[in-house]
């Protein structure tokens, strides 16, 4: 049965009523329901749904009507109760979202921490170089924890950083200390007078922890990345850091360490250090120096380097280490027992391999193959942190599994006498590695004992007393399990060698005079000086755990919750980087000029005239204008084809639908995009010669734009309807409405200035795409007095004023022409990346950008998401169409969702909060705000100004467009309203094309 409920004088916005309809329709026993205001047009929609009743027909336009097909009469009371409750809760529905302290893009990061001077990057290596490049462009030093960065990218980044007076630490830089703040995998080390520059992560950790346990400290330890001293890179970061450390006030002694360097680069580094103002200790892994020089000391092991630096800073004499392993039950050398060593990092593994090789006189060089630093005569040294072991698997600093597997293999080898390993403490490492390894060690010791074999476990704990894992605790766990725990890796290797009957010898080094060298002048930038002399301000891009540690040290840090820019498309990332690196200033200048034209535009409504009188393309042929980029008849959607049929019937080129379709299919009609003739058209956009159009002139630039008049709602041409009723209305608009409005507008000597009217309507709650009621009424307010004075038929006068007062969306078409005039004036500057047009034709979405002039960039169009009239859903919807997205291009419509609380529900069930989030998100892809149009509900900030195609591509945020939804079949008309997003491919194509125009290959 059909039940009708009329709530007299209860105005509710259509979006709220659509949501209410959806809620009521879900009630058990309700087979169909429609809830709308009882306007004449809506009554037609009720009728089409089979829900017209006498009570509905008697209701007024300000009455809310509920018509439902229910199984039981009692359900009407439930529906009314549910309705009352729903409407009551509208004001409180939604709720706030917890503020997110992190950021999601560079603009947010820089705005949140404008004084940042360091970017810490720990994202997949394939993207790391691009983000490091962006950080350099933002004036930040870079710490690249990320690995798998190409040598070519590393070279380019470090050269760029050097030229800009910045440092790039890394890639694959695991450790750093800057003004006592630990960065990445770092130990809690006391501040002090020793500085370190190192092309080694675990090497820096070993040095700093030994220094700390010896009672001294480190204020700055600059990691360079392991490849910095390769011939290709040339030691760029190391040299810049050495130069910076020379004048850093807290540093009295400097240690420089590196994995095996290229000889040419090593020589350059040594030449520089020979002229250093401070005492220096060097360690080039793999070299076995035999002397020291005055003020210039050369170590063989990390332990030696640390001990020399401590003696130097204390003013004590530098002597050799006197450590002697205290071992019992050692094997004899002749028994040919072997050492199996499994390390977390390459430097400690390399040092172990070097010491074993040199002590046993193996005559092999240092190198690495599949993680093996040494694999000779049964002796094995493995870097378990090598990519071959960590790709797709946890690092051995945080997971003991691989090390346990290796230890089991070692015990299975009867030649094995010693299993040597490290335990690395500090931030980022396993919270209790000793305990995690303990079961495996105990199991293997028991196995060896059962087999009556002596297998020794020897370890070194790389850590300090302040490390959260507890240095003493970790050490005691191992000692209690019978593991020999040594103070350093050098002592652990020395102990392992002693256990197989081999003695490691350390000779006393003579200190010889420093050779004469030619001093060079080195300049250190203020940015780098600040980096190592102040606590850093950091943008952390990637691992949140790094941020958490930085905050513990009272470091200013912003967490950048990174996602791959440009959808992870490396080609587009390179394009964006190219534009930013090579043309930042040029593009910024062009974009500023474009948006300045938008702000300076002065649109004025001058007239309403037949389209053929202002668009010359109509002359002498049958022409139809359509929405969107170019399209062929056969590719048009059914609604657009229906609009074409209606226009042909209106122009009397055919007398029936069949005849009209025959003409259209035969190619007798020429199709031209509205945009190509300074026009725009809603939905189907079909405009013919005798249709009246608004004439809007941008006085600032002297250009004009045109748009047809709004037909109202219901069955209308723009949604594909073409019945006689539709044609009759078009005839009336041609013969009455257009001439009357034209005559009225022409009485204004200088036309009707539109910017003040638009500003006023925004303050009244319009966003100018889905909601134009305030602007339509303000427009009527301007014209009504004039129309009342015109000499004309009284009925026609009444009909015109009644039509204007009934058509809430009437101003939309004026807004479209306004936006077109403004944006066309702006795009006379054919440079930059500002989006100057967005439109759709049901097949493709198309955009233009300022730098590419008239060229369209297209991709398949989407179908809107939204709320539907009763009886319809998304399956019934036509793909998106219309030129009305010119309003979003201008900065209103969906871009200004927050201006119109009444339509906020189009973006979700959260209401105002969602609209605020949407508008704030749109600000991420624009260049500025337009001060001419302030939004009260946005703290009186201006509307979005200048969509930047680069930002759309980089962030993957596409403009939100408010839109009506047409049925996919011609003639049905509008079935709902909602939002749609352009396909990002349009913007990608535009940005790539512009980059190629500028020279990108």
Outline the structure in words.
Helices cover 38% and strands 20% of the residues. With 1001 residues, it is of the alpha/beta class. It has four domains: 2-89, Alpha-Beta Plaits (2-Layer Sandwich); 106-321 and 516-562, 3-Layer(aba) Sandwich (Rossmann fold), CATH 3.40.50.261; 333-505, Succinyl-CoA synthetase domains (Rossmann fold); 596-996, v583 fold (Alpha-Beta Complex). A six-stranded mixed beta sheet has the order 16-17-15-18-19-20, with helices on both faces. Strands 6-5-4-22-23 form a five-stranded parallel beta sheet, with helices on both faces. The longest helix has 31 residues, at 570-600. It is elongated, with a radius of gyration of 38 Å. Residues 91-100 have low confidence and may be disordered.
Shape: elongated
- What is the helix tally? 31
Global mean pLDDT = 92
CATH homologous superfamily label of the largest domain:
v583 domain like
Main-sheet strand order equals 16-17-15-18-19-20
Please name the CATH architecture of the largest domain. Answer: Alpha-Beta Complex
């Amino acid at each position: 049965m059909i039940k009708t409920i009329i709530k007299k004088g209860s105005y509710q916005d259509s979006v709220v009523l659509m949501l209410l309809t959806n809620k009521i329709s879900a009630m058990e026993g309700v087979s169909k329901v429609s809830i709308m205001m009882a306007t004449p047009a809506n009554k037609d929609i009720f009728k089409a749904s089979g829900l017209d009743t006498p009570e509905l027909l008697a209701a007024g336009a300000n009455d809310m009507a509920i018509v439902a097909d229910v199984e039981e009469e009692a359900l009407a009371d439930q529906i009314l109760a549910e309705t009352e409750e729903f409407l009551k809760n509208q004001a409180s529905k939604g709720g706030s979202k917890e503020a997110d302290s992190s950021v999601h893009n560079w603009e947010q990061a820089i705005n949140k921490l404008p004084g940042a001077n360091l970017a810490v990057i720990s994202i997949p290596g394939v993207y790391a170089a691009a983000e490091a490049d962006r950080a350099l462009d933002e004036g930040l030093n870079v710490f690249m924890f990320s690995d798998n960065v190409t040598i070519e990218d590393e070279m380019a980044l470090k050269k760029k950083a050097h030229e800009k007076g910045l440092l790039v630490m890394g890639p694959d830089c695991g450790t750093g200390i800057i003004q006592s703040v630990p960065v990445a995998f770092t130990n809690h080390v006391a501040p002090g007078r020793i500085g370190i520059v190192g092309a080694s992560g675990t090497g820096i950790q070993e040095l700093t922890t030994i220094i700390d346990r010896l009672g001294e400290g480190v204020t700055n330890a600059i990691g360079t990345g392991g490849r910095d001293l390769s011939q290709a890179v040339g030691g760029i970061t190391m040299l810049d850091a050495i130069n910076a450390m020379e004048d850093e006030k807290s540093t009295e002694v400097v240690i420089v360490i590196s994995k095996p360097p290229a000889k040419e680069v090593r020589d350059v580094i040594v030449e520089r250090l020979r002229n250093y103002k401070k005492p220096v200790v060097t360690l080039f892994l793999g070299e076995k120096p035999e002397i020291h020089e005055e003020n210039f000391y050369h170590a063989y092991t990390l332990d030696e380097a640390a001990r020399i630096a401590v003696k130097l800073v204390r003013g004590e004499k530098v002597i050799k280490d006197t450590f002697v392993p205290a071992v019992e039950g050692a094997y004899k050398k002749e028994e040919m027992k072997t050492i199996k060593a499994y390390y977390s990092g390459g430097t400690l593994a390399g040092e172990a391999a070097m010491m074993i090789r040199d002590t046993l006189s193996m005559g092999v060089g240092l190198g690495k193959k599949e993680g093996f630093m040494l694999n000779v005569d049964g002796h094995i040294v493995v870097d378990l942190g090598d990519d071959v072991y960590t790709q797709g698997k946890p690092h051995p600093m945080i997971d003991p599994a691989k090390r346990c597997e290796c230890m089991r293999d070692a015990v299975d080898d009867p030649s094995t006498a010693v299993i040597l390993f490290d335990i690395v403490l500090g931030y980022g490492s396993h919270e209790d590695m000793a305990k995690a390894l303990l079961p495996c060690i105990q199991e293997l010791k028991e196995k060896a004992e059962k087999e009556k074999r002596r297998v020794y476990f020897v370890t070194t704990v790389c850590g300090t007393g302040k490390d959260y894992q507890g240095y003493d605790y970790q050490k005691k766990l191992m000692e209690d399990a019978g593991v020999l725990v040594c103070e350093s890796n050098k002592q652990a290797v020395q102990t392992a060698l002693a256990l197989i009957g081999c003695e490691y010898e350390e000779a006393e080094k003579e200190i010889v005079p420093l050779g004469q060298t030619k001093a060079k002048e080195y300049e250190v930038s203020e940015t780098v000086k600040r980096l190592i002399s102040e606590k850093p301000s950091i943008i952390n891009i990637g691992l949140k755990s790094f941020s958490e540690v930085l905050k513990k040290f009272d470091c200013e840090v912003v967490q950048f919750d990174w996602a791959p820019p440009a959808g992870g498309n490396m080609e587009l990332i390179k394009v964006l980087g190219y534009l930013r690196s090579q043309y930042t200033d040029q593009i910024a200048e062009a974009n500023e000029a474009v948006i300045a034209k938008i702000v300076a535009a002065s649109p004025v409504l001058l007239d309403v005239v037949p389209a053929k009188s202002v668009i010359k393309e109509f002359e002498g042929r049958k022409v139809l204008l359509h929405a969107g980029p170019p399209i062929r008849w056969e590719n048009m959607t059914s609604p657009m084809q229906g609009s074409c049929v209606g226009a042909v019937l209106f122009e009397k080129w055919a007398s029936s639908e069949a005849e009209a379709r025959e003409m259209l299919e035969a190619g007798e009609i020429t199709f031209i995009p509205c945009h190509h003739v300074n026009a725009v058209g809603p939905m189907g956009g079909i405009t013919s010669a005798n249709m009246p159009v608004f004439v809007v002139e941008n006085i600032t630039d002297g250009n004009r734009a045109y748009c047809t008049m709004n037909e109202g709602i219901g069955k209308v041409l723009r949604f594909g309807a073409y019945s006689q009723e539709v044609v009759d209305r078009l005839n009336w608009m041609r013969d009455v409405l257009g001439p009357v409005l034209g005559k009225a507008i022409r009485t204004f000597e200088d036309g009707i200035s539109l910017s003040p009217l638009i500003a006023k309507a925004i303050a009244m709650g319009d966003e100018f795409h889905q909601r134009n009621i305030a602007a339509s009424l303000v427009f009527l307010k301007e014209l009504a007095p004039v129309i009342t004075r015109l000499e004309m038929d009284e009925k026609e006068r009444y009909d015109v004023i009644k039509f204007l007062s009934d058509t809430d969306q009437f101003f939309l078409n004026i807004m479209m022409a306004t936006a077109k005039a403004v944006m066309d004036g702006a795009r006379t500057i054919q440079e930059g990346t500002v989006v100057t047009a967005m439109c759709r034709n049901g097949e493709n979405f198309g955009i233009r950008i300022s730098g590419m002039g008239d060229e369209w960039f297209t991709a398949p169009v989407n179908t809107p998401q939204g709320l539907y009239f009763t009886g319809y859903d998304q399956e019934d919807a036509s793909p998106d169409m219309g030129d009305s997205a010119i309003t979003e291009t201008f900065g209103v419509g969906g871009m200004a969702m927050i201006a119109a609380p009444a339509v906020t529900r189009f973006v979700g069930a959260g209401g105002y909060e969602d609209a605020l989030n949407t508008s704030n998100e749109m600000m991420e892809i624009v260049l500025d705000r337009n001060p001419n149009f302030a939004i009260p509900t946005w703290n009186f900030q201006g509307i979005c100004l200048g969509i930047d195609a680069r930002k759309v591509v980089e962030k993957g945020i596409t403009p939100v467009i408010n839109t009506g939804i047409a049925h996919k079949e011609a003639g049905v008309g509008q079935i709902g309203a909602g939002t749609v997003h352009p396909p990002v491919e349009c913007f990608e194509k535009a940005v790539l094309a512009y980059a190629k125009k500028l020279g990108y290959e």
